[in-house]
Amino acid sequence: MSASGLPASLAGLPFAKGHGTGNDFVLVADPDGGREVSAAEVAAVCDRHRGIGADGFIRAVRSEHLPEGQALLQSDPAAEWFMDYRNADGSISEMCGNGVRVFVHFLLAEGLVSLAEGETLVIGTRAGLKTVARVDKGYAVDMGPWEFIHPDHAAAKAMDAVVNAAGLEVPRPGLSVSMGNPHTVVALAELSELAATSLVAAPTVQPEPEHGTNVEFVVPAEPLVENGVGLLTMRVHERGVGETLSCGTGACAAAVATRFWAGRDAPNEWAVTVPGGVVGVRFLTAEDGREHVELSGPAVLIARGTLL
Ligand SMILES: N[C@@H](CCC[C@H](N)C(=O)O)C(=O)O
Asked: Which residues make up the annotated site Could be important to modulate the pK values of the two catalytic cysteine residues (predicted)?
């Protein structure tokens, strides 16, 4: 332990702090992959009282230095950089939608990549390759295809989980969706019900996806669609964190579930309002012929520093 109270192993480590719609991250550049971080180190840095404070910790490593990255380089040699993502408690997550935008913003600010208007950057993640472009108000990320988590999910079955949280009058039906990482989405009828739901403790989900789940409570607007865009308000309890101001993969899962519930005439474009702002979600047919989900939103860096 150093005098700062942080693990002594972290002393002298340069970092940046950033966020995407209030979902905040500590970012560290480790191009040669020599600076593995432990769960205890991540938890200490992300501690909001004794550390820098963040929902997640992101290490930028050249893909060639990680086994997961090497595998991705075989399918796309352009995937030079890998986003090594940890939740605030130190656990690993496969993917972070807000994080990947902030990650690219960080790589640009550090001069590690360039990304001109009209160009794209391919990033390696534990949920596969993600293609990122600059857009008007930030970055757009091709998040790849979505999937139902429960393999026995029948297309006719609108719900496949029962979710409970403090403040709900009765347990609610939910739908579990993978965006590379797990989500369970619950629709509520009223904004007042959303406000009354307590996310201090993790909601219970039955059956719970094998590796736990992030839980999104959504209130579809009435009317649902304005100028061709579906409108949702969402709060989220993130696996490995707690309630956060935003979750990019969660917003994608929320749009997937609500579009599924709304049926054939539901729009392909969505605006998801979270406590920290608004993110955009679009459904596109990609070059591989499959439906992909695109997430767009801002990315901000607020500070650079050195851990003591
Ligand atoms: N906030 C992220 C998701 C981060 C990972 C999540 N907590 C998990 O464990 O899967 C996002 O913006 O997608």
From this structure: 183, 238
Phi and psi torsions of 189, nearest 5°: -85, -30
For the stretch 25-45, pLDDT in tens is 999 999 999 999 999 999 999
Let me know if 96 is a catalytic residue.
yes
Q: How far is the CA of 247 from the centre of ligand 1 (A)?
A: 6
What pTM did the predictor assign?
A: 0.96
Cα distance between residue 15 and residue 227, in whole Å: 42
99: Cβ below 6 Å to ligand 1?
Answer: yes
**pLDDT class for 196, splitting at 50, 70, 90?**
very high
The reply, when asked if residue 87 is annotated as ligand binding, is yes
* Residue 80: alpha-carbon gap to chain centroid: 21
Active-site entry in 72, 96, 205, 272: 96
252 a catalytic residue: no
Domains defined along the chain, listed by start? 8-144+297-306 (3.10.310.10), 147-282 (3.10.310.10)
